[in-house]
Specification:
Fumarylacetoacetase_C_sf; Fumarylacetoacetate hydrolase, domain 2; Fumarylacetoacetase-like_C; globular; alpha+beta; 2-oxopent-4-enoate hydratase activity; 6 helices; 2-keto-4-pentenoate hydratase; lyase
């Protein structure tokens, strides 16, 4: 067996491990501590292998999420750039809906805004003006992140391989056009069980969510992936994620944009 074949076999084995953790809700040890360990340069290959397995199970890609967008999170993980993951139709939850806590491992909730594209973005050539021009609407949103890696003991390669630790997302029913708000100064307050516990402004997301999406468009071209009409993009959260337990309700309120909520049962 050639070195390339061994590498492909190893990547698929790690993808199988993550997919089994997803389907059984039994987490696995960090892939970066496996033998041999996951190499950072193979992390996206593992993510894409899991994405192919999801497609084989009938899941449809509906967008992308961006993670590690704050300086604090990058310093914590020890990296100097964000990461991305795929959003699938089965991850979507209605505004005000309920998520079964037992379907997840160790979920956390963070507030975001969601961009819904009206037209494709031009890959590595994407500018902030392109993002605004190609966006149909912006919605209040929540992302539920979850780690298939035990106890969230993740390094950069672990979370990249694990699809950016994505799990569920919620789009608020209210929407605005992209030029109707100052997206960089947009403020959000995240409440758990009617108690405000986190807040921030969107400039904490790589200097602004539009810049975050530019990074994504540039990065995806490395993998021959395009952002298309109708895609949902979550550009990152401006504040900390909150642990979610059975019986918890989360509500995010965005100044001038509206609110979005989800509960766990």
């Amino acid at each position: 067996m050639s070195g390339e074949e061994r590498s492909r076999e190893r990547i698929q084995a790690l993808a199988d491990r993550l997919w089994e953790a997803e389907t059984t809700t039994r987490p696995v040890p960090p892939l970066t501590e496996a033998e041999p360990p996951l190499r950072p340069e193979d992390a996206y290959a593992v993510q894409l292998a899991v994405a192919d397995m999801r497609r084989g199970a009938g899941h449809r890609v509906v967008g992308k999420k961006i993670g590690l967008t704050s300086a604090a999170m990058q310093q914590l993980i020890g990296v100097d750039e964000p990461d991305y993951g795929h959003l699938f139709d089965v991850m979507s939850v209605a505004d005000g809906g309920t998520i079964r806590r037992a379907e997840l491992i160790a979920p956390k909730v963070e507030p975001e805004i969601a961009f819904v594209l009206a037209a494709p973005l031009p890959g590595r050539a994407t500018t902030p003006e392109d993002v605004l021009r190609c966006t149909a609407s912006i919605h209040p949103a929540l992302e539920v992140v979850d780690s298939r890696v035990r106890d969230w003991r993740i390094r950069w390669a672990d979370t990249v391989a694990d699809n950016g630790s994505s799990a569920r997302f919620v789009l608020g029913e209210s929407a605005v056009e992209p030029r109707d708000l100052d997206l960089t100064a947009l403020e959000v307050v995240l409440s758990r069980n009617c108690r405000a516990e986190a807040s921030g402004t969107m400039d904490a997301v790589l200097g602004g969510p539009v810049l975050s999406i530019c990074w994504l468009a540039h990065k995806l071209e490395e993998f021959d992936i395009a952002l298309a009409e109708g895609d949902v993009i979550l550009p990152g959260s401006p504040c900390k994620a909150l642990d979610a337990g059975s019986g918890d309700t989360f509500h995010a309120s965005f100044a001038g944009l509206g609110s979005v909520a989800v509960s766990f049962a």
